[in-house]
Structures are given as structure tokens and as C-alpha cells.
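Ticket opened by: R.M.
Priority: normal
Category: complex prediction / small molecule

The reporter submitted a protein together with pyridoxal-5'-phosphate and asked that the result be attached to this ticket for the collaborator who will pick it up next week. Submitted input follows.
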Amino acid sequence: MKTIIEPFKIKMVEPIKLTSPAERETVLRQAGFNVFQIPAEQVIIDLLTDSGTSAMSAEQWAGMLRGDESYAGARSWYRFEAVLRELTGMPHVLPTHQGRASERILFELIGGPGKVIPSNNHFDTTRANIEHSGARAVDLVIDEGKQPRNRHPFKGNLDVSKLESLIQAVGAHSIPLCMVTVTNNSGGGQPVSLENLRAVREVCQRHGIPLFLDACRFAENAYLIKQREAGQRGRTARAIAREMFDLADGATISAKKDGLVNIGGVLLMRNDDLARRANNLLILTEGFVTYGGLAGRDLEAMAQGFTEVLDEAYLNYRLRSVAYLGEHVLAAGVPIVEPPGGHAIYVDAAAFCPHIPPAQFPGQALVCALYRHAGIRAVEIGSVMFGQVDPDTGESAAPPMELVRLAIPRRVYTQSHIDYTVEALVEIYQRRDTLRGLRIVSESQALRHFTAQFEEI
Ligand SMILES: *Cc1c(COP(=O)(O)O)cnc(C)c1O
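Result attached by the on-call engineer:
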């Protein structure tokens, strides 16, 4: 059979309110043309993020009821620890409330002034936690990873020669660890190959630098390796994921992605001394080592989620549904970051509306058009998010691209929802010259994309 179906049935439904164009016009104006200010109930298809938005399975919900809420040594903790150990081979498993809590603990221990932490691309919370510690975060993704139309199969790869140069320049002693983000979220959800992970590992080992994964989307990365890397077709996603973890000395994970849960995180490591110090910090700020700021039921849901996510039928459907969205809009001429990534499609808004200059926010114009036309909520990743002038330095971090991200929640939407999204985007593309730029009427000092108010030009 050619059609790849959703490998699940729907047991419980959450109604979607189908708003009219007139209602959406009112909502959009009330929100000051900022979709972060729109109540979720007024959204038909919510593609703002794939983080914490997964639908849980019947087994996960059953686990929630079985959750053991004992303070220390709960049954749910032992199950969670066993699942993570088997999945990753890491001896030390620390539960945290979400990914950034793992990052905060790790970088408080190994960061600090004078330290440099390389990665392919640091995610924004990772970078923020590194910089908060006083250390410097450096992105070393391969050049192909920055070219929207380049169809390199592993655009998330870390450039090994750039890593060697960085080590030459700052000295291995200033690099407490090297990170690799799988898949590379900030770089378009693009995967990292096993070959690249092995090469990075080799360089790190030669210089005595530990290698950590930011492994939020480890399962999607493993399946893209299976599909795209020579010699990997015959292996299971589980075996590939295990090899990825075997190459690393530790990992931070937000379980809100491939953990298939709505809240939760993990910090993993091999080094006993580092783990002892991390456990002390965990107790200080998150909770005792057998619950880490979560309820026993959350640990059950994570244990089950980390098991289900490696199901090959699920991964095949998941990667296919994202690629399906990408290929269909691409066929109609819509410019996107190619090839489609693991969890989202990124539309190149600068190419989509060339008549709108970056100063008038082409990405925001497209985000508003998607909401107006079809009630779809996407997110701007361009001049609104990154173009703000820093009040201290007077500098603006001009973004390399004007993108609009359509992130697909896991197991939430069916093919007809995706078809509807394709249709909406293509219809807007056909009358793209009618889209209007925006100007900001009010903004906050930092992270303005959450609260800024706009008006149309
Ligand atoms: C989401 C994410 C994080 C942070 O996780 P939270 O659970 O949101 O704190 C870190 N790294 C990557 C790559 C992510 O996608």
C-alpha cells in the first residue's frame, strides 16, 4: 500500500471551534497582530510549537493512574530509570521538569567565565543558560545548514574542521564539553548523521573534551539516519538511537518533544563525580533525585512515551506527515527550507513576499495571513524574534533568514488537517502580492516577539 496512515485510532476528541473570517479579523486586531496574544480556543490548527503539545496514548494515561507518588524510591521512578538506561546506556539518569532545567544544572556545573561551549546550533534556552553562567556559546553547523535550498541530507552536521580551529584558538582546557543538537532545532529540524557524530567524537576524544547531546528529538534523528544514511536502512531506530547515545558522555533532553509528554525532562551522564554534583543541585532546586520536580505519574507517562516513540510505524508516519506538508507546498512553488526537517516546515518568508522589506517583517505578515485566512497559528522566526536592538550594546542581531515555522504536534492532527494547511498556504501564496508589511507600535525591552503590538502598513 502506498498510503502511510496514522498508526493509531482516536479514543478521545477535543473539539475545534471553527471560526469565521470576520471573527478572526476581530481576534487578530485585538491581539495587536501578534499570534502569541491570541487565545488558543480561537485557533483552528495550532502549529506554534511541537513542544509539550503531543497527544498521549491510552497506555500513557493508564500509567498516569498507576503513578506511584511516594516521595523517595517510587515504583514509577524505577520504571523511568530502567527505560532511560536501556534506551541510552547512560548509568546516571536525573529527572527534571523540562529541558532547560537540565541545561541550567549542567552549565552551572561546567560553565562559567572564560569557558567556551561549541555546538552545531545551540537552542535558545541552551545558549541562554550557557551565557547566564558567564560562558560563551558557539555555533559550528556546516555551511550547507545555512542555505535554505541546499538539499544536503544532514544539514544539522557540526563542521569538524571549524571545531578543530576553535580548539586551536581557545585551547581544549577552555572547552568543558561539546554539544550536538539532534535534530538541529534552530537549524530547521535538520538531522545529524552517525558519520558526523563519530567524527565529532573522535576530535573530542583526542582533546579530552566530553561530548553531550541535546537529544530532544533523538528518535526523529535516528529515523532520518535510517532513511538517509548509507548502510543504515536495515537497522532499527532503537539500535541507531542507542549508537548515537553510545558516542556521547551525556545528554540533556526535553521530554516535551520525543518523550511524547506535556511536561518533563532528563539529564543523563556517565561521569560519577559530575553526576554526584548534579544530584546535589537537583535536590537544591528541582526536587529529590527520584522525582526531580515531577509527579510520579509524570515519570510513568515519560517512561511509556520514550518507549512508544521508537515504534517504527509511528516514526515512519511522523516523518512522512511533515515531509508531505513540505512537498505539497513546494510543488505549488512555496519557498521552504529544504529538505523538510523532522518536526516542522520552515517557509522562507523573504522569498515568499519579496515586496516586504525585513524592516516591515515579511514573516509576521505571513503569520497574520495564515491566521486570517484559515485560523492557522504559526510562528515568525526572523526580524521580529531576533532583530531587536539590544538596549545595552545598541546592536541588533540581524537574523540570517526571515522564516515562518509550522511545527507539527505529535499524534494530534490527521491528514485532512495537513491538507487544509497546504491549501491555506498555497492560496495565500497565489495572492502573495496583497500581503502587507507591519510596523511595531509597542514592544518590550527583551524577547519582544511574545508581547509586541503591531499595525499594518
Ligand atoms: C525545547 C528544546 C529545549 C528546551 O527544552 P524545554 O523543555 O522547552 O525547557 C532545548 N533544546 C532543544 C533542541 C529544544 O528543542
